[in-house]
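Note to self: keep these together.
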Amino acid sequence: MSKLITTGAEKSRAREILRGLFASAVASADPLDCVPRHLAALDVVGRIVVVGAGKASAAMALAVEREAEKQGWTDHLEGLVVTRYGHGADCDRIEIIEAAHPVPDAAGADAARRIQALASGLTSDDLLLCLISGGGSALLTAPAEGISADEKAAVTRALLRSGAPIGEMNCVRKHISAIKGGRLARSAVPARVLSLMISDVPGDDPSVIASGPTVPDSTTRHEALEILTRYGIDAPGSVVALLNSDAGETPKPDDPLFRNVENVIVSRPSDMLAAADAAARDAGCAVVSLGADLEGEARDLGAQHAALAMRLQQERAGDLPLVILSGGETTVTVTGEGRGGRNAEYALGLARALDGAAGVHAIACDTDGIDGVEDNAGVMVTPDTLERARAAGLDASEVLSRNDAYSLFAAIDDLVVTGPTRTNVNDFRAILVA
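Structure:
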């Protein structure tokens, strides 16, 4: 591994290392490991009503059931969580509902109504145990009064295509929701509320994870209106009217309803990078970590990382192979009608900028196992990525112009397909530099 990776055997070894790093990252966020340790001291008096939303919520519910059986409070347990289609788990006492993501559907709306009803029927002896993870914003979709489900879905679609970062999207979604932005916690008064969260957001802000259904909201309805205006989103009249009224405001940090609410992050993207860092060093590599909070346009970030990889390769000639790690959530401004995914678009931007540079391989994947709305977790890049694409009749620049990176990597058989991982600590990227 200390020389340029050019042979088939060396290429296979690079792929093996990169896939292993991704597996380590995903394993670090397994709900069956990270959830139980936060339930060991649970004080059970009345009912324990479990609700939740997100791509990891079903696996988190399964972890709760197993811990309840160990500790002997299974009879206190009931509830309902909603997850993405295909991300369910087999639970006995907690109902699992699957719904659409990233654009909400009727199943998600029905689940949100039922979750709010469960929270609203509790007493001061009861505990509302919330299991929150990335994807919950789309899955926990209960429109605010006066807004239809179709109108809320239209705003979501427009935000997804706009290139707005996740924090801005969630600011809008919170203010047009009946359940996000702390409103679920308001429904649960006077019960105690404990939210266990798996973070998928840069900075690990609890109010951004699934739009913070149990977290006070420091953003305002005026900011939500400004975001819609800035991205040129023609929102329905009902949405504009709500955001122009006091009814569109969310509970703030000084609201006394949060005195009995505890929000705990049980796994975060930085944990994922730490696990991958350790695995890379075990594989005999040096590591440069760029952090778990990177944002920006996917293809542009890929180009920046290519320049960094080539510079470090020149500086470190003859040294140990190097792994450049990063996480976060990039954005894709959609102008074409192709099949994309932000990790595929990042990787194609990386490959274009590398332009066949020898000895540089990469992997870019979403830890939930789904890159955007496609069937792959992400893709891999090799020194001959562009060469093989050209042999398949594909030009990388033209492919990017129509946001069709998935199709290019599918044509050269470099998709990474894992299926749903039932966790979500955001995107994972590793560049192996020989």
